[in-house]
């Protein structure tokens, strides 16, 4: 069905394995359209009705190469609960994100990771740095930012930033022993 949403490419597409180039600031009209397309897909994919109507796969994040654009842009959406227990969606849309520092300690999701570009399941732990600092241009705030992330947020950021180097989550899984213990790692359920 034709719709306004971007098309997500599978990992067999060459764009998923190519390195991305930095985006020039200020963003061109075309780069803005790419970013808006990523944001709209991820945000709407988390809305049950829209997801069902348009066949969107629920996403925590998306990177530009997944829609065939090898340029350094990613989007991450997190649910954040305020003091009253209201859940709010927080969108992080980053241009030219770079991990400038990270912890030696690892963390991983106990259930493993998934990716909209990877239709089949690859079981196993995906080691990620438990804490990272990312420098980027924040598309929504319209300024340079330094983000300190940990927990699930740090994992999703690393997953999306990996896409910009043509790296997929299953590249990190221990081939001989996918569930090998990761020494000192924080387990995230
Ligand atoms: Co992915």
How is this structure best summarized?
With 189 residues, the chain is of the alpha+beta class. The chain contains three helices and eight strands, in the order ααβββββββαβ.
Largest sheet: 5 strands, antiparallel
Order of helices and strands: HHEEEEEEEHE
Number of domains: 1
User: Structural class of the secondary elements?
Assistant: alpha+beta
With helices defined by DSSP (H or I, 4 residues minimum), what is the helix count?
A: 3
Distance between the termini: 36 Å
The side-by-side strand order for the widest beta sheet comes to: 1-2-3-6-7
CATH architecture title:
Alpha-Beta Complex
Ligand roster = cobalt (II) ion
- Principal-axes shape call: globular
Uncertain regions spanning at least 5 consecutive residues = none
- Rg, rounded, reads 16 Å
Number of strands: 8
The CATH class assignment is Alpha Beta
Average pLDDT, rounded to a whole number, is 96
Per the CATH scheme, the topology name is Peptide Deformylase
Task: Give the CATH superfamily.
Answer: Peptide deformylase
Question: How much helix is in the residues?
Answer: 10-25%
Strand content: 25-35%
What can you see in these coordinates?
- The chain has 189 residues and is α+β, with helices and mostly antiparallel strands.
- It contains three helices and eight strands, in the order ααβββββββαβ.
- Helices cover 20% and strands 28% of the residues.
- The protein has a five-stranded antiparallel β-sheet with strand order 1-2-3-6-7. A three-stranded mixed β-sheet has the order 5-4-8, with helices on one face.
- The longest helix has 17 residues, at 29-45.
- The mean pLDDT is 96.
- The chain binds cobalt (II) ion.
- Residues 115, 117, 159, 163 line the site of cobalt (II) ion.
């Amino acid at each position: 069905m034709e719709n306004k949403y971007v098309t997500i490419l599978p990992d067999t597409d060459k764009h998923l394995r190519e390195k991305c180039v930095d985006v020039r600031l200020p963003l061109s009209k075309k780069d803005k359209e790419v970013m808006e397309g990523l944001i709209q897909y991820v945000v709407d994919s988390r809305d049950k009705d829209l997801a069902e109507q348009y066949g969107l796969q629920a996403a925590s994040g998306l990177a530009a190469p997944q829609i065939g654009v090898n340029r350094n842009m990613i989007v991450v959406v997190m649910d954040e609960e305020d003091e009253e227990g209201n859940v709010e969606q927080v969108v992080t849309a980053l241009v030219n994100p770079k991990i400038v520092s990270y912890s030696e300690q690892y963390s991983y999701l106990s259930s493993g990771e998934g990716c909209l570009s990877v239709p089949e399941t690859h079981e196993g732990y995906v080691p990620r740095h438990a804490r990272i600092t990312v420098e980027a241009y924040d598309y929504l705030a319209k300024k340079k930012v330094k983000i300190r992330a940990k927990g699930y947020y740090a994992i999703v950021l690393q997953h999306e930033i990996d896409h910009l180097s043509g790296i997929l989550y299953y590249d990190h899984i221990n081939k001989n022993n996918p569930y090998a213990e990761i020494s000192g790692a924080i387990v995230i359920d």
